[in-house]
Design the sequence.
């Protein structure tokens, strides 16, 4: 069991960025009973005065400060110019100007000892950690971050390790700004993973949910629209899933053929919010809601 | 009448107070600010009246035997699970698995219900004013499900006994489910029953029952053998 949440303020690009970080932390905290292990968010549509926003975690293989310096050097060697660098514990948030090939930069960062790449985006970032949403917010000050939309996750691990890298959201390496949060289990994970690896795709973890991110990245890179990619995943992914995806300017959900994992949806002209449980929606919207429950094999997308 | 503010109480405190009031008999309880909390008004085993002003979360009004509960809002998964007797009326929509393992009484959903409505039902009546999702009546063993709107795929999958009435479209029948003829008297009876719920439309209901091709119970349970 896990909890997922997503929110988009449809016109915030025009009317001013919305408190996406604050909303997601509130929604996730009310669903903490669905997963205490770890939590994370993607905040998209941030105001970024550079080409890329990069999130890195320095693993325990070396002192964090050394890894962080190595990551900065890698970026510089590959032609990137750091605009801002914010280190917080073992995390590094970089904004940088970079005109090269993003997959090439991603590969270079991944080959840098100690570096775990959580996301590369043009306007989005993944923040994830072990612990509950409130605890994570104390470290990362997620609530202060504004954007146009975002997704979040609280995890109760049913497979793979409980650590920072196996927390959600999963970034669709090396596709900028595409991230996924997932509630469920994929039963054809190993076969599909081998197939993608043989085609050159890279997996950073042993978590089945990462497959969805890679799958969508592959579809999008072939030119598919987001909704088309979500719909095709119904036939290609096996198991139980309700997942949310966030892109640079879009958000969507897909729910499996068994309707096995919950999702409720509330939408007005200006905002759309989704969560595993209505109690999460009520943490952001205090009034009684007209909400719907997506059914089996449903997908939907929105644009910010 | 006693009013309880769910926003001021933990779920355990709220349910304890409801039980205490119900055990005193003929209680009329109003619950305010439920804010989609889980497990509201569970395990009440006395006749009483409970009015919940707002949406509830998972397992609301489950494990009941006797109360009449009205909920003005939505409900999460498994509303009214294992209802033995009494009535539950929900003004808006319910999540998946409403009336799971229900044994008696009546559950009315003003809006729509999610997947697996009436799963493992063993008696009583579930009425859905709107649509009902995938696997409606999955493995039901007794009782009636009345859906005024459409039902999703696999309706009545692996049902043993009981009846599902559908006023709208049927996505598909589940394994071992079949359509049966509905009589004029049966139809009029359903319309009269729905009129009491404020539903005045008169859908031409279709009836789904078990085909019983998967029904193999030649060997009695140990307890049943002693009764013959």
Sequence:
């Amino acid at each position: 069991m896990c909890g997922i949440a997503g929110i988009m303020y449809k016109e915030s690009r025009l009317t001013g960025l919305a408190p996406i970080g604050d909303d997601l932390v509130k929604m996730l905290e009310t669903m903490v009973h669905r997963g205490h292990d770890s939590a994370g968010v993607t905040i998209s549509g941030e105001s970024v005065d550079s080409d890329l926003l990069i999130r890195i975690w320095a693993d325990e293989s070396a002192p964090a400060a050394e890894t962080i310096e190595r990551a900065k050097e890698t970026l510089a060697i590959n032609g990137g110019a750091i605009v801002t660098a914010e280190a917080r514990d073992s995390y590094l948030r970089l904004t940088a100007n970079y005109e090269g090939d993003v997959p090439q930069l991603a590969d270079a960062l991944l080959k840098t000892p100690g570096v775990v790449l959580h996301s590369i985006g043009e306007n989005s970032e993944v923040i994830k950690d072990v612990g509950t949403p409130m605890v994570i917010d104390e470290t990362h000050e997620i609530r202060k971050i504004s954007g146009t939309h975002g997704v979040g996750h609280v995890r109760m691990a049913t497979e793979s390790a409980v650590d920072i890298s196996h927390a959600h959201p999963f970034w669709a390496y090396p596709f900028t700004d595409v991230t996924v949060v997932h509630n469920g289990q994929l039963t054809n994970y190993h076969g599909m993973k081998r197939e993608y690896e043989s085609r050159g795709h890279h997996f950073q973890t042993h978590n089945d949910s990462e497959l969805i991110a890679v799958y969508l990245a592959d579809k999008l890179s072939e030119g598919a629209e987001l909704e088309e990619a979500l719909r095709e995943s119904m036939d290609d992914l096996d198991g139980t899933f309700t997942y949310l995806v966030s892109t640079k300017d879009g958000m969507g959900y897909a729910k499996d053929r068994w309707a096995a994992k919950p999702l409720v949806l509330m939408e007005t002209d200006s905002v759309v919010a989704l969560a595993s449980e209505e109690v999460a929606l009520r943490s952001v919207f205090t009034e009684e809601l007209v909400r719907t429950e997506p059914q089996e094999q449903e997908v939907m997308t929105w644009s910010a | 009448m006693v009013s309880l503010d769910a926003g001021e109480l933990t779920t355990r405190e709220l349910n304890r107070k409801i039980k205490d009031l119900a055990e005193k008999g003929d209680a009329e309880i109003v619950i305010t600010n439920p804010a989609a909390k889980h497990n509201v008004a569970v395990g009440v085993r006395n006749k009483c009246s409970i009015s919940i002003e707002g949406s509830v979360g998972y397992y609301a009004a489950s494990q009941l035997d006797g109360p009449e509960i009205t909920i003005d809002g939505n409900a999460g998964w498994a509303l009214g699970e294992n209802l033995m007797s009494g009535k539950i009326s929900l003004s808006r929509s319910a999540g998946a698995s409403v009336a799971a393992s229900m044994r008696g009484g009546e559950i009315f959903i003003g809006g729509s219900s999610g997947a697996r409505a009436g799963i493992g039902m063993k008696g009583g009546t579930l009425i859905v004013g709107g649509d009902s999702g995938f696997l409606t009546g999955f493995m039901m063993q007794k009782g009636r499900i009345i859906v005024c709107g459409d039902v999703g795929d696999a309706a009545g999958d692996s049902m043993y006994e009981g009846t599902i009435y559908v006023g709208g479209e049927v996505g598909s029948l589940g394994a071992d489910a079949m359509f049966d003829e509905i009589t004029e008297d049966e139809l009029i009876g359903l319309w009269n029953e729905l009129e009491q719920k404020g539903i005045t439309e008169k859908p031409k209901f279709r009836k789904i029952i078990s085909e019983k091709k998967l029904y193999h119970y030649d060997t009695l349970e140990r307890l049943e053998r002693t009764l013959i």
Observations:
- The domain at 2-212 of chain B is CATH 2.160.20.60 (Pectate Lyase C-like).
